[in-house]
Amino acid sequence: MAKKKITIEGLALMIGKGFSGMDKNFKEIRGEMDKNFKEVREELKGVKKQLTGVVYRHEFEELETRVKELEGFLAMPGRK
Question: Where are the domains of the chain?
Answer without folding.
Answer: 30-80
